[in-house]
Amino acid sequence: MTQPEVCFELIGYPLAHSLSPRIHQAAIAALHILGSYRLAAISPQDFPSQVQNLLDRLRSNEIQGMNVTIPYKQAVLPYLDRLTRSAQVIGAVNLIYTQNGDLIGDNSDGDGFSKDLDSYNIGSPGLAYILGAGGSARAVAYALLTQGWDVQIHARRPEQSASLVDHFTKFLNPSEGTRLQSIPLDEKSFVNINQHPQLVVNTTPLGMHPNVNASPWPDKVMMPNHSFIYELIYNPPKTRLIQMALSAGLKTANGIGMLVEQAAISFERWTGKRAPRAAMFASVQEYSIR
Ligand code: NAP
User: Fold this and answer.
1) Distance 107 CA to ligand 1 centre (A)
2) How many angstroms does the Cα of residue 234 sit away from the middle of ligand 1?
């Protein structure tokens, strides 16, 4: 009997540089599944009609799963029937699947981050700094708080980090809520900080190609002793922040592991099969610094 062909779609704009097709095609090939992972680059003016059309095709099982990326992770929310708890708390969706005919919006960025971080065995939860307060900062904060970390959000716009903290406070239980603080991201506040974070996560785009000379960590401030530096950027694989951390003798990770892990979670949700992580990682090996 011939197996049915599966089709997954990624919506976003623009999508030319996305590594997701490579990672998912590697999984499809490794499991000898017939199928494809396609890019749906939808311009903002076409978003309402095209997203509806794709979601209708998902509901009718013409396609089997969808990922969502910038700039539609929040815009897609009103089109869905239900959200998972992580999508609700993070306030954004990057993964859509069907369950009993309903369209479910989920967020695998937080779990993808946790899964990758776990692979570095950095020890039990302590204090973490998150640099930046945008979409990925929410996913990382959710992941860390649910694992028992104390989290400080360092953002250049205090109103943005305060809004993140307010949003989270609505969803988290009181003990989780008190473990989240908002701090301004500037040189003065770094110098004044006397706590030593066990983990620093960069969620700003500072250092991303082509602005490879930028770093969110101020030049004049020493990097904290014994911190693990997790950089969400993976292009270039060794950002300026990672280079600074390595020069200070610190251990580091870049975001390629998170990208692969969130893809693996999506793949498992859509297919019910265990994702072939080794093949998925191998497909983007040139971004790895492990
Ligand atoms: P976002 O929603 O735009 O948030 C970016 C954050 O960085 C905002 O708080 C922004 O503040 C801050 N920021 C931007 N420029 C800054 C600067 N010059 N100085 C200080 N803060 C600055 O973006 P995002 O979706 O969170 O993505 C952020 C980065 O993470 C990107 O590089 C993205 O590629 C990467 N990422 C990686 C993965 C992965 O799987 N590895 C997943 C998601 C995202 P303002 O609002 O004030 O600009």
Assistant:
1) 17
2) 13
Counting from 1 in the atom list of ligand 1, the atom nearest the Cα of 257 is 41
What tens digit of pLDDT does each residue of 144-198 get?
A: 999 999 999 999 998 999 999 988 888 877 776 678 998 888 777 776 666 789 9
Using the atom order of ligand 1, give the atom closest to the CA of residue 132.
9
Three-state helix/strand/coil letters over 58-125: HHCCCCCEEEECCCCCCCCHHHCCEECHHHHHHCCCCEEEEECCEEEEECCHHHHHHHHHHCCCCCCC
CB 239, CB 252: distance < 8 Å:
no
Ligand 1 atom closest to the Cα of residue 256 is 41
pTM (whole model) above 0.85: yes
Question: Distance from the CA of 73 to the center of ligand 1, in angstroms?
Answer: 14
> Probe ligand 1: pick from 232, 256, 258, 259, max atoms within 8 Å of CB?
232
Q: What is the pLDDT of residues 89-129, one digit of tens each?
A: 999 999 999 999 999 999 999 999 999 999 999 999 999 99
By annotation, the residues acting in catalysis are 73
Pairing, β 127-131 against β 199-202: parallel
